[in-house]
Amino acid sequence: MLYLKSEIGSIEDVDPHLPSKHWLKVGTLKIDSRGTRLGERVVKKIFDTAISEHADGVYVTVFEIHVHLIKLLRRYGFREWGTKTTKNGVELVFVRDLRSFSGDILTDYPFIHTSGKKYWLLAIKPRWHTELLPDSILRNEPREIVQDVSHTNTIHKVYIGHVSFDGISKGDSIIFYRTMDRPPAYFRSVATSVCVVEEVRGRRDFANEDAFIRYCHPRSVYTEAQLRDEWQRRGVLSVVKITYNAAFNRRLTRGVLLEEINIRPTYWVLLNITEMQFRDILELGGVDESLIID
Prior knowledge:
Elements: E1 2-11, E2 18-29, H1 38-52, E3 57-62, H2 67-75, E4 79-86, E5 89-97, E6 119-124, H3 126-132, H4 150-153, E7 156-161, E8 173-178, H5 185-188, E9 190-202, H6 209-216, H7 224-232, E10 238-253, H8 254-259, E11 270-273, H9 275-284
Parallel strand pairs: 2-3, 6-8
Antiparallel strand pairs: 1-2, 3-5, 4-5, 6-11, 7-10, 8-9, 9-10
């Protein structure tokens, strides 16, 4: 259960008081994840709401015994502020400032640093798209395809390809491009999401097949058997680990990318795009401009 409430002004029922701002209060946060990383999906929902409401910060109260939840909050930039006393006892207060940044991919999540980075358009097949990127579901897709499983819930995704990712670096931004489910691609292929690169690996970066499975399985849409097939496939094997930062409010068709963004590749699997094209895509996709912080 997740209950969120906007509060404007100083928060005086915590010690010390929170300064006067537009706060998003996490009033109730109860998670039964059953090992499916549901907590990460809830954290993303909190940030999505805070961004859409233009909040300056988020605060949440939690009892000290909830060690795993506290660890989760700290991972994404929450810091301990003080305490709040209620009839149920004394709770810790954790705060995330949405107007100051550390430069770290995780503690600044979901905000995107662009200074000195590169930008990419990366294709993903329809059969994998929404299972990996659940908030990017298309209007004509059944909601049932979004399941309570680790690779769907986690903020951290793994994409496996058989082209070289040598040009991609930590901190680069990736826009996912869902290929067509049926012709014509001009109308049926769409850009849907923006992510940030955490790490890039190749076959040589894994000690063996089992190490590859351990790394990919919790974050990839593939089953263990499918991952083993990917490993045993001849040729280039590339893995990119990313954070899932935002789904577009408007999906951009291939036609829009061609005619309005002036992207004209001959090969749509992986494409390096310019900063201007990246920003134009986010603007046309309805992504809140505050997500880009430099």
